[in-house]
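Full entry
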Amino acid sequence: MSRLVTRTVLVASLLGLVSCANYDGRSMKGENPTDTLDVLVNNDQESEGQEDGFSKFSTTQLDDPLSLLDGEKGEPNLDLDPFQGVGGDSVINLETLSGTIGEVGSYELTFPQVSETASDFAINGAIQSVADRIYLDFATEIADISNEGTVIGVSDLVGEGRIVFNNGYLLSVLFEGSTDWGGAASQQSWTESVMLDLSNGQILTAEDLFQLEISTDWKEVIADRSYGLLAERLGSEMIWDEGLLPIAENFNNMLVTQSGLLVVFDQYQVAAGVAGTPTVIIPWVEIAAIINPQSRIGELVIAGGSLEVN
């Protein structure tokens, strides 16, 4: 009983540090490099560059989005777009949540914030809530370690949230980072994600993108395609099948990007820890049969350009 009370007090104390920690409100203005990526599916797009675009290690590397804009851009369809112009002229700034937890931990999380949309407060709150959750998980773990009486050095958490897709209607944000636990021999990689409707700040999940009333289970298709891409990159002998079983919890981090569906796996989920947080991009043309263009995600992508699935 005393152990539970002690842990509760420690966690409460750590949570209280959120308000008094050094919250760095720096705002660095800059162009959002993905605000003109407005085509979800392009049958002519080559998938050869996938391996170069994403690293198999802990930090996902995107190709320079500006290099993808040489082709003709999709035009908004006014008949399909009930929110014409929403988010199209949004400004992207960066903010940083940082501070220390007594003498045992430090954290720094950078994430994007938007302005000049109709739903700034809801959108920014949803993005920051991801950063807050990452911090709270870190603080809780430190509380657990302290409660056990284990003596370790200072633990550090560092990460960032990056926009990987923004067509003015739908926003995909990928959080990646690492935690160095004091006294531990290895670094822990982690990843989180959030996808937002820019018209109202509603959080969307990639599961909403798929047709659910057909015989083909989207989870089986995503699992099969992910296995093939991971095997090409890491080698089939390195893949852990359990992390690719067709169950929803194995595909918590999926985001819409221009070139395909981005699937990010946790460290140790599908391969050894040295692989970090493995990623794959499944080209839209390969999963066109299970996509529901009438879903809210489909509507928002169509509004920003074209949805070519045939």
Summary: The CA atoms of residues 39 and 306 lie 5 Å apart. Residues 2-307 form a domain with the Heat Shock Protein 90 fold (CATH 3.30.565.40). The first strand starts at residue 23 and ends at 24.
